[in-house]
Amino acid sequence: MIISASRRGDIPAFHSAWFMDCLRRGEAVVANPFRPKQTRVVDLRRDAVAALVFWTRDPRPLMKHLDEIDDRGYPYYFLITLTGYPRFLEPGSPGLAPALSFFAALAARIGRKRIVWRYDPVIFSNATGCDFHRDNFLKLAGLLAPFAFRVIISFIDPYPKALRRMQRAGFPAGPAAGTPEQQLELLGGFAAIADRSGLEIQSCAEGALTASVAPGKCIDEKLLNELFGLNLAYRKDPSQRKLCFCQESVDIGSYGTCRHGCLYCYAR
User: Fold this and answer.
1) pTM attached to this predicted model
2) DSSP per-residue letters across the chain
């Protein structure tokens, strides 16, 4: 079993103490995201867990616990989101300077092969058009390539509550995902930048939009097998979207627990 921590909220940034308590107890009580009164107990004992995958915008609160996680024998890697967007879109996310610092510190601690950068979601707006994304991605790729080996990109999905929140804020949410032509043009540019920077590039839940960017997996059994000598067989996660190719995992997070305040977030 792979533990996802978490698509539903930023556990490393805001709930690392809770996570470590669960790890020490060997279990986590997790609410059903659609029926919160319905809970299940997830076995976190080492012999029940093949690996941990951490999703975060800020790994710093969890980094002080990595020695203990290592001592307990859990394999893990990090998915870290950094977009460099204007603050009105991401009011609580770390800025570029602290992000570069913790990318570098984490890479020094665990190696860049265990760090995946997420440029996600790509949003088109008056403030974040094609030119913005090309320039922004070029800058971030150059800065992050020494500290991450792969970048995963995706375009915003029109989750109703996120669209309503964006519309209330005066944000033109309708065209935020861009046209197919804009997406293809941007992906081609991203692929060329990633190649020059020494980064692998994959898309997330986008299908085969272009040959230059292959569909990828955020939770990737091949990467885990390569990193840790595991023998995980691929099984698509049936609880995820049709175009999501992630390996099956158990998510231990809860919606509504992230405090980054991103305007477009589906998990708020």
Assistant:
1) 0.95
2) -EEEE-SSS-HHHH-HHHHHHHHHHTEEEEE-SSSTT-EEEEE--GGG-SEEEEEES--HHHHTTHHHHHHTT--EEEEEE-----TTT-TTS--HHHHHHHHHHHHHHH-GGGEEEEEEEE--SSSS-HHHHHHHHHHHHHHHTTT-SEEEEEEPP--HHHHHHHHHTT---TTTT--HHHHHHHHHHHHHHHHHHT-EEEESS--SSBTTBEE--SS-HHHHHHHH---PPP-B-TTS-TT--PBP-EE---TT---S--TT-S--
